[in-house]
Write a structure and sequence with these properties.
Layout (H helix, E strand, L loop, with lengths): L3 H22 L8 E5 L5 H9 L4 E4 L2 H10 L3 E4 L8 H7 L2 E5 L2 H11 L7 E6 L16 H9 L4 E7 L8 H18 L5 E3 L6 H6 L4 E4 L1 H4 L7
Parallel strand pairs: 1-2, 1-8, 2-3, 3-4, 4-5, 5-6, 6-7
Bound molecules: pyridoxal-5'-phosphate.
Pyridoxal-5'-phosphate binds next to strand 8 and helix 9.
């Protein structure tokens, strides 16, 4: 019988191999691709194991879970779920990065909460919607510049770049080809904010081939979650 640590180590090694192979196939430097281990719904003990295995970036979708686990485990904590305004006060305390900014209202709240932020600025990714349907969050591509202009003129936060999720029912390669075009235009406008957060367990290899710099991988490392999330 294998222990939880052995199981996670095995899965993590496979994911790291695939990241390496995808980077190589795309002629990209491995160290420009950051793996965020998505620990949502899994216990803090799993995050601790991941830390022992060298992981320093952790992703969460819910404020309550992120607040608790980040107390327990040192690292960079990434909030990647849909934002609820009333949770931002807490989120901006524990999160080092928010991947899912998609509204001016939330930006205003973040701005007032981060005005006097000590230490590192809060890293912000703007989520772009690839289906225009707002189903899984994100702003349409044509609204990115306006929101990004507001982010860069705000103190206490730093614009990292873009985030996207492949729409349900759309082939990842097709979605991420479109994303790469949007990202190219965005990076030309905001040359110090060129990060691209894209790719989950089912599609991170495709995302890497289309320029992802931050991939968010949960179930391939920790196993399947209850269908609720
Ligand atoms: C859950 C989630 C992930 C990780 O998904 P897996 O399929 O478990 O790798 C990544 N990004 C977002 C926004 C998520 O909600």
């Amino acid at each position: 019988m294998s222990t939880r640590k052995e199981e996670i180590a095995h899965n993590l090694a496979l994911v790291r191999e695939k990241i390496q192979a995808s980077a190589q196939a795309a002629n990209r430097n491995l160290n420009e691709i950051e793996l965020i281990a998505v620990t949502k719904t899994f216990p803090a003990s799993d995050a601790r194991i991941l830390h022992e295995l060298g992981i320093r970036d952790f992703g969460e979708n819910r404020d309550s879970e992120g607040a608790a686990k980040s107390q327990d485990v040192q690292g960079r904590w990434h909030f990647q779920g849909q934002i609820q305004g009333n949770k931002l006060k807490s989120i901006t305390k524990w999160a080092n990065f928010i991947h899912s900014l998609d509204s001016h209202d939330h930006l205003e709240k973040i701005a007032s909460l981060c005005k006097e932020r000590q230490g590192e600025p809060l890293g912000i990714f703007i989520q772009v919607s690839l289906d225009g349907a707002h189903g899984r969050g994100g702003v349409p591509a044509q609204e990115l510049t306006k929101l990004a202009d507001s982010v860069i003129s705000t103190t206490g936060i730093q614009l990292m770049g873009l985030m996207a999720v492949a729409p349900l029912g759309v082939e990842a390669d097709k979605a991420f080809t479109e994303l790469a075009v949007i990202h190219g235009a965005f990076s030309a406008n905001f040359p110090t904010s060129t990060a691209l957060s894209a790719g989950m367990s089912g599609d991170y290899e495709s995302a890497i081939s289309h320029g992802a710099t931050h991939i968010r991988v949960g179930s391939s490392i920790l196993g399947s979650r209850t269908p609720e999330m």
